[in-house]
User: Which sequence fits this backbone?
């Protein structure tokens, strides 16, 4: 099915979804931080490295430049009105959780735009997920960091850049958030911190095994190509917000470095 550049509301999207497709991937693009090439190359990377039929949907406010194979869901209409009434300084990227409330059978997941899929991920996404599966920031889990940040609410070992679940095993997370929305919006600034401080301790989340995912800017040492890694993150938003003085790159800034060849070849897929 071609999107024809049309942003669908949630009702139309669900009505037109193909029940024969058992794997649905989503990504989010709003504002102008990332161009459409991020969407197109992420889609192409899945085409190359995921061997099961899937649908790929971009939740966006601007469809310009996005390839027609990518389905389009209107960012300004996803989720309850009560969620959209809060600013982005309250549980930043909370919109992702609204995907857990979509009535779509099968395996679902979201992948952030600043994620590089390097190699085969079929064996990762075709698991029989019993819990929503997130990334654990193994690169941040150092004793010296724990002492430095303890009690300040600034440490966070959960990352929501590449998340998968099956059927309704993640419905509870949307429901809990919706039920306690006002209190949670007051308490947490980002989705990752909300997940880390509120739900990690309840054992209702699970995580990709160490070695499958790394972070180009934070893994120690940074910027190197590690064997066995299938997914590499480039998330820089908290670096900017917290004013960190580290050498960090977005994917489009890696020309002359090893990720560039991977990212650019997906233009041809």
Assistant:
């Amino acid at each position: 099915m071609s999107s024809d550049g049309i942003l669908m509301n949630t009702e139309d999207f669900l009505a037109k979804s193909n029940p024969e497709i058992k794997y649905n991937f989503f990504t989010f693009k709003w504002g102008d931080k990332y161009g459409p090439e991020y969407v197109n190359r992420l889609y192409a990377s899945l085409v190359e490295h995921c061997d099961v039929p899937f649908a790929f949907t971009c939740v966006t406010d601007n469809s310009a430049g996005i390839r027609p194979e990518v389905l389009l869901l209107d960012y300004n209409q996803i989720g309850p009105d009560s969620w959209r009434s809060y600013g982005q300084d309250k549980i930043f990227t909370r919109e992702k959780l609204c995907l857990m409330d979509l009535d779509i059978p099968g395996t679902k997941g979201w992948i952030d735009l600043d994620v590089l899929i390097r190699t085969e991920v079929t064996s990762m996404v075709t698991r029989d997920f019993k819990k929503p599966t997130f990334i654990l920031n193994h690169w941040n889990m150092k004793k010296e960091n724990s002492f430095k940040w303890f009690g300040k609410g600034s440490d966070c070992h959960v990352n929501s850049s590449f998340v998968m679940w099956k059927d309704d095993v993640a419905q509870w997370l949307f429901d809990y958030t919706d039920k306690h929305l006002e209190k949670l919006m007051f308490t947490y600034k980002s989705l990752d911190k909300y997940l880390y401080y509120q739900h990690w301790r309840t054992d209702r989340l699970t995580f990709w095994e160490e070695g499958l995912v790394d972070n180009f800017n934070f893994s120690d040492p940074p910027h190197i190509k590690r064997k066995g890694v299938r997914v590499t993150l480039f998330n820089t938003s908290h670096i900017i917000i917290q004013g960190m003085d580290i050498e960090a790159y977005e994917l489009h800034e890696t020309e002359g470095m090893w990720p560039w060849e991977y990212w650019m070849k997906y233009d041809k897929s």
About this structure: Residues 10-268 form a domain with the Spore Coat Polysaccharide Biosynthesis Protein SpsA; Chain A fold (CATH 3.90.550.10).
